[in-house]
Amino acid sequence: MSFDQAAVHAAVGLNADLRDRWRREWCLLMDLAVWGDLRSSQIGLSGKLHKRVLEFGERLRSYGNDRSWIPHPREQIKNALSTSLQTRESLEKVSEIAEQFNDGADLAAFRTVWKAISSALMADIVAREGLLVQLLNQQYQEEV
Predict the structure, then answer these.
(1) Phi, psi for 43 (deg, rounded to 5)
(2) Whole-model pTM?
(3) 139 — pLDDT class (breaks 50, 70, 90)
(4) Across the chain, what does the average pLDDT equal?
(5) HEC letters along the chain
(6) Do 47 and 101 form a contact (C-beta atoms < 8 A)?
(7) Residue 8: which of 65, 84, 86, 75 has the closest Cα?
(8) What is the pLDDT of residues 22-66, one digit of tens each?
């Protein structure tokens, strides 16, 4: 039995408005990370934050990418799950570094933006992963 194409598309696709919102929030986050007044007593932490926020943006872009170019639905689902895992890891890395900042005029704004994007993204990841796993499990049960 084959996958329901509509269900696969709904599970691997990201709403364009949501993707655009996260892009705007990430741009604001990157602006605060690079140009904002964030301070820490740890030398080199700002550079690490820049790198991790940039990496997070790349993962976020991958998370929201169109997967219709991947020919088989199962591969679309596996790609979406893999990207989801990478995005989770990137979220954790940024959070670890962000917690180490302790001062600066833009620290509160940075934390507010980070909390908004990370909590909304994590909620989407959890829901989406559930759908993807359900689709894969359904397919495997039908094959048995």
Answers:
(1) -70, 135
(2) 0.89
(3) confident
(4) 92
(5) CCCCHHHHHHHHCCCHHHHHHHHHHHHHHHHHHHHCCCECCCCCHHHHHHHHHHHHHHHHHHHCCCCCCCCCHHHHHHHHHHHHHHHHHHHHHHHHHHCCCCECCCHHHHHHHHHHHHHHHHHHHHHHHHHHHHHHHHHHHHHC
(6) no
(7) 75
(8) 999 999 999 999 999 999 999 999 999 999 999 999 999 999 999
Compute the radius of gyration of the chain from its Cα atoms: 18
With a CB cutoff of 8 Å and minimum separation 6, the contacts of 32 are 38, 106, 109, 110, 113
Which amino acid, one-letter code, is at 105? A
- How many other C-beta atoms are found inside a 10 Å radius of the C-beta of residue 52? 20
